C-alpha cells in the first residue's frame, strides 16, 4: 500500500522578514531639474551608479535620469554640456516603500524590467535599489540554489566600433546593456560615458566580467559576481548576462518555483536503476540515497502543488520497483 503525505514546510533565516531598506543603497546620485547633464553624468561615474533620482528642494521625487538618457543625447549629436536634466528625465517612476518585503522588490524588477527602484519613506527618497544591488544582496538571500541557471539569463550582445558616438547609437538602438568591440572586449553604457568624460576610446574603459559555466545556478552566479564586483557574466563565446537580466530571471523563478522532496522506498537491489530512471524525469533536479524507512530522496521544482502531485502519482508510483512514497512540499522560503 502506498501512502503519500503532502506536508508544507516554511524555512526562515534571522529574526525579521528582509525588507527593501536592508538592500537599498543610501549613498546615491541626486539631481535637480535645472542641473546640466554633464554634471549628473560625473555623479554617475563618481558613485559608480547608473542613474540619479531627481528631487525638488524638499527632497520629494520628481523623476529619474539614467545613463541611457545621456547616451541618447550623445547618439543624437546633442551635447551633455548644453542639456538640462528636465529635458530628458522621466517623470513616471516605479517606486517602493522601505518596508516592502524583499521578494516583492524582486517581483517589481521582473514585472517592469527596470534597473533601479527608488525607496521612499513618507514620500521622500531615502535610498535606491539597483539591479546590481538585487544581484549582490537580494538573490543570494531569497533564491533557492536549484532555481534557475545563468544560461537562462544570458543573451548575445551586438558588436560596435570603438567609437563613442557609434557605441552610443548601438547600445540605444539595440536597447542593450552592453556591446562587444571584439570577441573579448565588452563595453557598457558606463564605458561610453567614461570615455566621453575622459577623452578616451570606449575600449580603454571596458567592463570587467567573469566567465561561468552555463549550468551555474543563478544564486551561485550572483554570489560570485558580488565577490568579484562585476556586473556582467560571460556564458559561452558571445552570450552575456547583465545584472538586470539576472534580476529579471530570478524574479521569474522566485515567483513560479515550488520545491518538493519526494521520499521513495524501492525494492532491494533496484536502487541504481531507480536513481538512473528517476533522475531523467521532468522537474527532477536531483536523486540521492538516504537512510531510514526510505531509500531515495528526490528534489523536484515545479510551478504548483499539482505539478508535484502529478509527478508522484503518474511518473513515480507506477514503477514496479517503487514500494512507497512520501512527499514534502516547501511552501515558502524566506526570513523570519
What secondary-structure arrangement, pairings included, does this model have?
Layout: E1 6-11, E2 30-31, H1 37-47, E3 51-55, E4 61-66, H2 67-75, H3 85-88, E5 96-97, H4 102-112, E6 116-121, E7 124-130, H5 131-142, E8 155-156, H6 164-174, E9 178-180, E10 186-188, H7 189-198, E11 209-211, H8 218-228, E12 232-235, E13 239-242, H9 243-256, E14 258-266, H10 271-279, E15 284-289, E16 296-302, H11 305-316, E17 322-333
Parallel strand pairs: 1-17, 2-3, 5-6, 11-12
Antiparallel strand pairs: 3-4, 6-7, 8-13, 9-10, 12-13, 14-16, 14-17, 15-16
Structural descriptors:
single chain; 336 residues; alpha/beta; CBS-domain; Alpha-Beta Plaits; 2 domains; five-stranded mixed beta sheet; four-stranded mixed beta sheet; 11 helices; 17 strands; 34% helix; disordered N terminus; disordered C terminus
What does this structure look like?
Residues 24-80, 89-146 form the CBS domain. It holds the Pfam family AsnC_trans_reg. Keywords: CBS domain. This is Inosine-5-monophosphate dehydrogenase. The chain is of the alpha/beta class. It has two domains: 17-256, CBS-domain; 257-333, Alpha-Beta Plaits, CATH 3.30.70. Helix content is 34%, strand content 26%. The radius of gyration is 24 Å and the shape is elongated.
